[in-house]
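Our working data are protein records whose layout never changes between entries. An example says more than a description, so a record of this kind follows.
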Amino acid sequence: MSRAGRWFLRSGIQEPGGGVARYYRADLERHQPVSTEITGYAASALFDLHAATGEREYFERGLAAAHFLTRSAWDGQSMPFEVDPGPEGRLSYFFDCGIVVRGLLSAWHATREAEFLEVAGALGRAMAVDFAAGDGVYHPILTLPEKHPMDRDAVRWSRAPGCYQLKSAMAWWELAEATGDQSFREPYDCVLEASLRGYASFLPGHPDLPKVVDRLHAFLYFLEGMLPRAGEKRCAAAICDGIQRVSAHLQEAESQFERSDVYAQLLRIRLYAHAAGAVPIDQAAAQREAALLAGFQASSADPRIDGGFYFGRRAGAWLPYVNPVSTAFALQSLALWNQRPESGEATPPPRLI
């Protein structure tokens, strides 16, 4: 945990202005552009690290990330994927917006600065209106500034609506809790209903095993998104079914392609579902996933790499991406696993990153 935390502070993955790069390319010795989604995830992780360690620098870096989102990225109308657009122009992703809202709520819970709750609420309301496609379905991508839906691509999960969007819809659930405005619950419940109707067809979703692993990452977002309702019978059943599906597909593909975030998310959903009383944890499977996940942490004399988690490996060979989301998910998953009560009893876990 200490080494991963230091990677967030010392690697340069976070720019001086607070924004966080999508990942570090170790082979090219280059950071990718800053992403608002990744900055939202990083804000949540940094405030978690501060809560766990008491170290002030984590708080300051989390604050910088949140201020970047409210003061540099948010224009009062929309949240772009990147502040400096690439060749496709300015785009806004439904999924990214939800993660940004949740990152801002982490900042608000830690600081009680009204700015964070105000922007989170405004962005949450914009998500519900701008991305709506009807019947609990939301357009995955809009062009900016027009806010026109971008053409969908059924082969690429991130360019099509799907059950994975429920993780982002958790932002509405959390806004209802933070603001007391229960109208935010309605869009979450609509996405939940649509996701429960359609999730069974999401996997495997592609004939290529490596592409299936990518879809496991997205499918696990769906399982995470059900946690607010995990105590309900149908959601508990879907989480149990989903864990079994992911585990089977993951083991089938391991010799070809592995993603650290998939191991982290699978381990984490086991722990959260167990704590919620929804699905008893499979101790042997969780132990295996924790051990495999720990092996993705990088060790290097280069501070841009050391302590971070590699994104993945193909046929046993590391891919050269040191990834802040993989690191954040791994941090939370392994901390929960290593700190679980010896009695095995379920204890309420911290807020999901």
Observations:
- The chain has a mean pLDDT of 95.
- The longest strand covers residues 91-93.
